[in-house]
Amino acid sequence: MSRRCFSLTESRNWCYRSAFARSGLRSALTDLGDGTVVHCWVPKARSPAKPDLLLIHGLGANALWQWADSLPHLAPHFNLFVPDLLFFGDSFTSRPDRSDSFQARCLMRVMEAHLVRRLSLVGLSYGGFVAYSMAAQSMEEGAAVAVERVVICSAAVCIEERDIKEGMLSVSDLEEAVRILVPQTPARLRELMGYTLTRHPPLGLIPSCLLSDFIDAMCADYIEEKRDLVRAIPRNRKISEIPKITQPTLIIWGEHDHIFPVELGHRLKRHIGDTAHLVVIKDTGHAFNMEKSKEYHKLLKTFLIDLKPPPASSSLDSESEKCTTEKRTSDNGSDPKPTASTNAPSQA
């Protein structure tokens, strides 16, 4: 797909690169030697007085777009490492593995290459799947990198392959979700924005030329590879086979998430157990990091800087979980299942 002579998206991308540089980060490429190259923003001068923090983006744009607003809140307190996942930015692989566990293994190797031995993680949406897998891998015997604290943001780690077929999400056709999550037309991008944002301008009024510009700049490369990342999320996924991480974990969800219903956040909390805390942010959806930025960054500060648990979930959260669940019989017994009331496709 041809690039425009002038691109608002590329101009904003340049501004974000400048913001990362002003925040003390530099661009670095790590060749893992197996056909895989990972781009990561790393500290220009790593401070031994600061802990290390890895920020993992979700689907959509590259790391610049998803983490630029967080830099002023986090850079003063941490040595930040901000990678582009495979098939985003300048990261790529010739290997066929499209699983989140492979993404996690690659990031573990990148951190090892940068002499990081202990770190905490924040993962947004699809990045939350990768963060969870990194936390699990760090518990394995002989792991070179230890994960200390984990933040999972709207990542349905405990989704199962059958959930899509049984109507937990609004689409039973994974390929329809794939077409929305890797948009190639302005109409698909509008659809994705409608699912992700709870407060947005009338989508029909956004000029198609602006949306096409974004698609050309951010979504035109590695199209099939990105689609395969989505397809790999639910494939053969069963809760019984998902490891339970033991690190202190903060799970953050938007109350009106139309990508992954909030019950999946409660399910993840139940799976991990007492070391996990779930916070549901009111009056927002999947993109709560944008729509409720102040609350989001306050939660990160409390958990990652002050090393305190987040505020307890309100009674409304518990009642919401009760009202949206019903019993279903599973192969392993009784498992709660929310009613199919969300109007959104699946997203990782």
From TrEMBL:
Residues 53-295 form the AB hydrolase-1 domain. Residues 309-348 are annotated as: Disordered. Residues 319-330 have a biased composition (Basic and acidic residues). Residues 339-348 have a biased composition (Polar residues). It holds the Pfam family Abhydrolase_6. It comes from the Eukaryota. PANTHER family: ALPHA_BETA-HYDROLASES SUPERFAMILY PROTEIN, SI:DKEY-122A22.2. This is AB hydrolase-1 domain-containing protein.
